[in-house]
Amino acid sequence: MQELINRAKELLADGTVARVLGWKAGDLPYNPEPAYFEKEEDFENFVYNGFCGANLSKYMIEASKLEGKTLVCLKPCDTYSFNQLIKEHRVDREKAYIIGVGCKGKLDIEKIKGMGIKGIESISGAEITDGADTLTIQTLYGEKTCSYADAMLERCHVCKGKEHKIYDELIGESKETKDAERFDSVAAIEAMSPEEKFAFFQKELSKCIRCNACRNVCPACSCRKCVFDSNKFDSSQKANVDSFEEKMFHIIRAFHVAGRCTDCGECSRVCPQGIPLHLFNRKFIKDINEFYGEYQAGEDTDSRGPLTDFTFDDVEPGIVAERG
Amino acid sequence: MQRIGVFVCHCGSNIAATVDVKKVVEMAKMEPGVVHAEDYQYMCSEAGQSKIAEAIKNEKLTGLVVCSCSPRMHETTFRKAAERAGLNPYMVEVANIREHCSWIHKDMEEATKKAVILARAAIAKVNLNASLKPGESLVTKRALVIGGGIAGIQTALDIAEAGYEVDIVEKTPSIGGRMSQLDKTFPTLDCSACILTPKMVEASAHEKINIYTYSEVEKVSGFVGDFTVDIRKKARSVDMDKCTGCGVCQEKCPSKKNSNEFNRGLNTRSAIYTPFAQAIPNVPVIDRENCIKFKTGKCGVCAKVCQAGAIDYEQKDEILTEKYGAIVVATGFDTIKLDNYDEYAYNQSKDVITSLELERIMNAAGPTKGHLERMSDGKAPKNMVFIQCVGSRCADKRGKSYCSKICCMYTAKHAMLIRDKYPDVNVTVFYIDVRTPGKNFDEFYRRAVEEYGVNYIKGQVGKVAPQPNGQLLVQGVDLIDNKQILMEADMVVLATAIEPDPSVRKIATMLTASIDTNNFLTEAHPKLRPVESPTAGIFLSGVCQGPKDIPETVSQAGAAAVKAIGLLAKDKLMTNPCTAKSDELLCNGCSTCENVCPYGAITYEDKEVNDHGIRETRRIAVVNNALCQGCGACTVACPSGAMDLQGFSNRQIIAEVDAICR
């Protein structure tokens, strides 16, 4: 982390960048938040550890409109989102100085709490430089430990890899954290009967409080004006009066990001209700892979997305009906 | 608020017998915006149309809903009627309560309920309609014909005779198509080549016709009246201007063992070849896959023997870009693959052949010089069995559900020709039924049975088994005598089903012309517009639209030509005003719409916008109205809903859905 701070200060000082986009410590030991750093003294609060799950690429949409370059810290998986935003002309590559930061998997505080660890005062072992596989947690009730891997976000267990897809320079080592198959969770749902599927999603989506956190954090949900906020389509009004429409929000959102979603997992990370929203997106990704060949959104900045491209070898739309 | 008039048509008893039209009128009156509703026996009649005009005048209507037949039938009629009465034609909507309702339902109560819902949806839409004004576009006075068989040649000749330029694109090295492979033609038994080759010559000599053989359509953009087409002229490796067609290169070519496609693989040809002697153009091509020079770099015999110096190994594919006002598809057919029909032993025995192969065997220029013999040992056959409907009229997925239409007649022809030339050969035909609807067709078939003694057996063949002695054991059933039949044959001929040439799928996609589940191109109306594709400016000629024989193909080719001429004769076309429009305050500039637009109608501009007081330069989608065809692909792809289709706006569609679900 110190290397990152030093380099960021250097780039600020020599005028290469006008500001730094990173994470600052929050009021709890496990909730750092995205922040801009413009002066040397701001860096006192700078933090980069296992809890810095937030994907900063979306902030670059607004940062691209500011004077001068913005230094942005991107984890390997964040770079996919950044590439996708370049492809959609939403961020300006020239306005970004990308430091690819190392990642050894990001932590999910809900998982730690789920282990019965309450009253957390401090956590060690979450630093990016720590080689330890164990987290040591000081709580009101004494010291507790848990394995780093057990506390990781679901998305890190199916990590896309430790390679940064776009960067100006790299700082810090990354670790391979993949220990599960990405589409297993989707396949499990596919195996359900229609009634079971309906009941499953009914139950999950009924938890939604429409806080819009999933939408606001999603790098693919980058519309200037969301259809759910626009008076042009009546969707927001309908969602207000009809609980069925409310549930449609997530389905419509999944359709809107289909083919563009990089599976960064931010939607599920920020959901205060713990709805596994990534499952919708991952289902689309799985279908796209099966119908049109393997495709990873954000892999590069210029390939055509399968849903907005056409080849003569494309499957007929009827394939969905045939497959059932 | 709109002032909407609703007109419910009885369509004689077509609608009124199943839908309570009075009830529809009554219910429509209660819908928001409706100020007038009435029913009438025939809305499309003169009297019906004047009712509309009167109501527009008396009730000061701003919008109309006509509950009648499909909009494809009479939308234009009602729009014109409204326009004459001073209303913008795009303020008219049609609720289809015939095809979508009365024709498909029996229960009056249910059908009436549905008719009311359909009317309600149309009223909800009209409430949001806005006046639209069509633009104009110019017509390029040149036609493209895809496919150089008899259909394509005839269409091209007819268009050219009317004084318009025509290009024919043919993928093989010569025009002529399937007809050039046939020996004799039913029901007159005249020689196929004798009637086809003069037409080929006429087409190639016509000053208005330009033929691109060994060429394929690569890309199509634009729209009716103004298509832009990329044509790939594949490298012939022979200079068309220098070649004299002397044929020495083909004689001397050392690579002689290449399957001869023209003779359906029954014999071989050289690597440099013309498909047949009367080929047009009479310029060979080098089959690069089999040419020794291309495979090893050594040889070059053809270049050495060519007096004209026409051989050019360096030749490359060329892409030509041409503009056309109309495109005629005449891609023809092929016989189906028989891999799913192992019971007929086609892949096991050389003496089981398709009828098209028999055509080549019977042809004087064919692999046996026209002498009827077995392909296995060259012996003259004594017993021949013809099996009808191989892969046609097939209930399961192995074959085709349709009747290939030509097989009954050509089998009678083959049987008759064989009995005439070789009276000692016994000919047996197994059939499901014999179909002979055509001028002089049944007489022709009866001659085969009555005068030539062809043995017709009503029944199907279950198995053809090659025997060790070289004979074929045919196991069939005679349905009339109700008995099993076992007979030995020297040759078995399969009346193999025909299917659209596989290339048609790619072409249909490029043209956005619809095809059916059997890959036949769909006509705009099966009865009233049989030679037009639903896609404007695309016309259909020959078997690509459905199975047909030569006389039918030629008449359809002429009909397609007339339709194309009708289009080319116009100087300007009215363009569809239902085009896409981008809301610059909602546009993200993400290029999704640009990627999905099949017409290249969307570009991006950096434009200063004022978004509620925030002034900034944004990347905004801009639609070129002259290019946009209103397909709506962009509106569904746009994540922010910035793209909207005029006349079919997102809001209108949702209003319709809401009205239906209410």
TrEMBL record, chain A:
It holds the Pfam family Fer4_8. It comes from the Bacteria. Residues 199-229, 252-282 form the 4Fe-4S ferredoxin-type domain. Keywords: Iron, Iron-sulfur, Metal-binding. InterPro entries: 4Fe4S_Fe-S-bd, 4Fe4S_Fe_S_CS, Helical_ferredxn. This is 4Fe-4S dicluster domain-containing protein. It comes from Blautia celeris. The lineage of its organism: Bacteria, Bacillati, Bacillota, Clostridia, Lachnospirales.
From TrEMBL, chain B:
Gene3D superfamilies: 3.30.70.20, NAD(P)-binding Rossmann-like Domain. It comes from the Bacteria. SUPFAM superfamilies: 4Fe-4S ferredoxins, FAD/NAD(P)-binding domain. Its cofactor is FAD. The keyword Metal-binding applies. Residues 234-265, 282-316, 578-607, 619-648 form the 4Fe-4S ferredoxin-type domain. The keyword Flavoprotein applies. Keywords: 4Fe-4S, FAD, Flavoprotein, Iron, Iron-sulfur, Metal-binding, Oxidoreductase. Belongs to the HdrA family. This is CoB--CoM heterodisulfide reductase iron-sulfur subunit A family protein.
